[in-house]
Amino acid sequence: FSSVNSFDLLEEIKKRRIENIEGFKKGEAWKPYVVLFLGPNGAGKTVTIAKIAYLLKKNGLIPVIAASDTFRAGAIEQIEIHAKKIGVTLIKREYGSDPASVAYDAINHAIARKKDVVLIDTAGRLGTNIDLMEEMRKIARVSKPDKKIFVIDALAGNDLVIQAKQFKENVGIDGNILTKVDADVKGGAALSLIYITKAPIIYIGVGQKYDDLQKFEPKWFIKKILPEV
Fold this sequence. Notes:
Shape: globular
Order of helices and strands: HEHEHEHEHEHEHEEH
Largest sheet: 8 strands, mixed
Mean pLDDT: 89
Oligomer: single chain
Strand order of the largest sheet: 3-2-4-1-5-6-7-8
Radius of gyration: 17 Å
């Protein structure tokens, strides 16, 4: 675990906010912190984005969500429900729209309104889908994210390895969020994820409530898989 460069997403965003405020006083352009979320459908990506938005709001930061999954039926409505519940602005377009343009709109909205963070939801489909990977690369080129976060289900099994490799090789991964950890009794998914992506796990999902997001702690994880330690 110590060989993987870790980072605290919340602290990085707080630091950016302070820099933005000071820079704005000097006449510099406002630059929101942009986070691009990647991962297959069914991994819990949408609810994880809502949890991150909720966490940011609790810490006095102002997020905006980009509904850049314009492919999956119901995806926009799903993220919109979460956005309304937690009181966060959602930037969206019609299904079939260019996902990168939605991210672009959200970033411009954050710049104009001086919001702190842009959280970009994306389509999943299959990790091996070539068109999907090109779509993700385009969103990354347009949005120039500060961090690309891979969200994966702890119960994904062998699919986790395939999907993590595809996203890592085609788009890049800076950090991971492992969902449904409450149902994963062995914890092997965490080891696989760190090994494949060479990126840290920053949060784990332990339930469906907005508060059910925890910072990943290696000591906690080791005790989980080796109770006698």
